[in-house]
Amino acid sequence: MAGKAGKGGKNRRRGKNDAFGDKRELILKEPCQEYAQVLKMLGNGRLEAQCVDGAKRLCHIRGKMRKKVWINAGDVVLVSLREYQDEKGDIIHKYNPDEVRTLKQMREIPEAFRVVETIGAGEGYGSDDDGDDIGFENQDDQDVIDIEDL
User: Fold this and answer.
1) How far apart are CA 68 and CA 17, in angstroms?
2) Measured between alpha carbons, how far is 54 from 97 in angstroms, rounded to an integer?
3) What structural domains does the chain harbor?
4) Are 90 and 120 in contact (CB under 8 A)?
5) What distance in Å separates the CA atoms of residue 71 and residue 27, rounded to the nearest whole number?
6) Could you tell me the pTM of the whole model?
7) Which of 90, 106, 99, 105 is nearest to 51 (CA)?
8) Is there a smaller number of Cβ atoms within 10 Å at the N or the C end of the chain?
9) What does the DSSP 8-state code read for residue 77?
10) Concatenated DSSP letters for 7-30?
11) Contacts of 127 by beta carbon, 8 Å cutoff, 6+ apart
């Protein structure tokens, strides 16, 4: 019985993604584009982003970036605006934290955009502190019952 001729499963590409290895050319916005910060991931390649012009837009991750460039809440991205739908846009580029700092120095984006440091490839997997914990506060302190009072 012959073995598989392929190079592995769909996750084989994970190892070669290094965080910010080499410098790349900084892409600036063009007339029909806008800088934005991701507010919320909606699923199915869609997200909600706050653009520099003050509008919240429903954005779609373009096919070339899908499953290759991971976008999270807080990331700074370049959005291509749609001429026929002002409330929607398409994500065409994701900026790394160094590029965001450069854009702030060039005054392309406001200082209000905070830089979110992301972990490199392979780091942080399996740790208990992954930042997605949900905390609840007790609104009614009078409803708390002590076990010894029973």
Assistant:
1) 9
2) 22
3) 33-106 (2.40.50.140)
4) no
5) 17
6) 0.64
7) 90
8) N
9) E
10) ---TTGGGGG--SS-S--PPPPP-
11) none
Tens place of pLDDT for every residue, the chain, 150 residues?
555 666 666 666 665 555 555 688 888 999 999 999 999 999 899 999 999 988 999 999 998 888 888 999 999 999 999 999 999 999 999 999 889 899 999 988 888 776 665 444 444 444 445 555 555 555 555 566 666 766
DSSP labels, 88-138: EEEEEEE--HHHHHHHHHTTSS-TTSPP-----TTTTTT-S--S-------
Is residue 80 within 8 Å of 92, Cβ to Cβ?
yes
- What type of residue sits at position 43? G
SS3 assignment, position 142: helix
Q: What pLDDT was estimated at residue 60?
A: 95
Task: Dig out the tokens for 41 from the structure.
Answer: 């991931």
